[in-house]
């Protein structure tokens, strides 16, 4: 592992990993004691975590005290304001992205060095947002900018076209775009990422070294939701970049949520209703805010603020229309072999059903109404394979021309 500028990047990474492990031990101990206590002293309507007594209780308390003490020492050792410098190896970047997707909100709240800060990058390197340094970092800058926004548990190095570069490089070659890649913590609320992305785009266009002619955004999965949220918050505060945004392309974006998160939430609720299984439901509550936002497709702070994000209920989302004056496009994928099958409509690409990816909804005010000529369905294609499919790039090239 490469060292950070102060020479101890490996040290920081070890501290960060140990903090996550300590948190996992603490949660597992809580669940184990809760199950033990419920069996020893049944109480069918118990809601709060149960505690054991006597020698057994002493053992569990000792484990908790030791774990929390270890956690405190690790926080003290890794307390300086710094970020771990992982190598550029794709495997390490992929692992870090997955960890952020699953528990990224917890990493950010606890100051863990593995939490990914939101930045714009090229070739895995952070772009400076001052005009002179940005001009040096992007000597080939053109007036056409395309920003690529990755999805849940992914990173900016995964726009791979399998042997022909990536989508951004191909758009630079074929259409003269300058590609810029968003790298962010997908475990945070989508609205938080949307707000930060809006501010980052404003800074980027202000520092861009040549006059900007047009801006395009391509978002895969959650990335499309972050882009929509950014458009909303940019308009709310009067950013200038939306006036430059010409085209917005969604790749398998769950505009109306994913059934996997809804089913997971239902299963968690069912577990919580069974006394001996209820402690295990708490493990499900470790999943990130970004994941729970995918239940219905939440884009706004109001969709989750002041609510229990794990509670079962109806669709709480506010209405967020597509940005006015922007040509919007959608590509959906399905594992089905041909049109018309039940699985094609319900499960789609394995994670996102077709109606969600295409922005369709039974309630007219929630329907995104993307015109048929700006939509595409790919068959025999999964959610992640869609990123590496030549037919997807062919559509991008035609739409962004």
Task: Describe the 3D structure.
The chain is an alpha/beta fold and 401 residues long. The protein has 13 helices and eight strands. Helix 8 packs antiparallel against helix 9.
Strand element count: 8
Give the termini distance in whole angstroms.
41 Å
Structural class: alpha/beta
User: If you compute it from the alpha carbons, what radius of gyration comes out, rounded to the nearest whole angstrom?
Assistant: 23 Å
> In order across it, which strands form the biggest sheet?
2-1-4-3-5-6-7-8
> Shape from CA axes?
globular
From N to C, what is the helix and strand string?
A: HHHEEHEHEHEHEHHHEHHEH
Q: What is the helix content? A: 40-55%
> Mean of residue pLDDT?
80
- Regions with little confidence, pLDDT below 50 for 5+ residues: 1-11, 79-88, 270-274, 276-281
Q: How is the biggest beta sheet arranged?
A: 8 strands, mixed
Question: Which range does the strand content fall in?
Answer: 5-15%
- The number of helices is 13
């Amino acid at each position: 592992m490469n060292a950070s500028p102060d020479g101890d990047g490996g040290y920081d990474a070890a501290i960060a990993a140990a903090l996550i492990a300590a948190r996992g031990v603490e949660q597992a101990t809580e669940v184990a004691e809760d199950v033990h206590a419920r069996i020893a002293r049944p109480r069918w309507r118990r809601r709060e975590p149960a505690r054991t007594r006597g020698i057994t209780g002493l053992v569990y308390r000792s484990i908790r005290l030791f774990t929390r003490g270890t956690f405190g020492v690790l926080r003290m050792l890794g307390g300086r304001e710094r970020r771990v410098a992982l190598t550029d190896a794709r495997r390490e970047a992929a692992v870090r992205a997955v960890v952020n997707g699953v528990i990224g909100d917890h990493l950010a709240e606890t100051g863990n060095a593995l939490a990914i800060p939101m930045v714009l990058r090229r070739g895995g390197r952070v772009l400076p947002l001052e005009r002179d340094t940005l001009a040096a970092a992007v000597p080939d800058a053109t007036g056409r900018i395309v920003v690529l926004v990755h999805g849940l548990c992914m990173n900016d190095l995964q726009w791979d076209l399998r042997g022909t570069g990536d989508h951004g490089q191909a758009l630079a070659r074929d259409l003269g775009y300058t590609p810029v890649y968003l790298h962010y913590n997908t475990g945070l609320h989508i609205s938080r990422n949307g707000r930060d992305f809006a501010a980052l785009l404003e800074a980027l266009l202000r520092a861009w070294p040549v006059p900007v002619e047009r801006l395009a955004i391509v978002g895969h999965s959650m990335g499309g939701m972050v882009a929509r949220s950014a458009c909303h918050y940019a308009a709310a505060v009067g950013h200038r970049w939306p006036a430059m945004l010409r085209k917005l392309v969604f790749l398998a974006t769950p505009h109306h949520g994913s059934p996997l998160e809804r089913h997971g939430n239902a299963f968690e609720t069912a577990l919580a209703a069974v006394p001996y299984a209820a402690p295990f439901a708490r493990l499900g509550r470790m999943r990130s805010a970004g994941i729970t936002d995918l239940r219905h497709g939440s884009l706004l702070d109001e969709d989750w603020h002041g609510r229990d994000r794990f509670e079962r209920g109806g669709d709480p989302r506010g209405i967020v229309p597509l940005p006015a004056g922007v040509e919007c496009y959608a590509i959906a994928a399905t594992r089905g072999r041909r049109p018309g099958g039940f699985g094609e409509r319900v499960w789609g690409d394995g994670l996102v059903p077709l109606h969600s990816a295409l922005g369709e909804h039974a309630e007219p005010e929630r329907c995104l109404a993307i015109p048929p000529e700006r939509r595409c369905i790919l068959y025999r294609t999964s959610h992640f394979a869609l990123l590496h499919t030549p037919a997807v790039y062919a559509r991008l090239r035609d739409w962004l021309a």
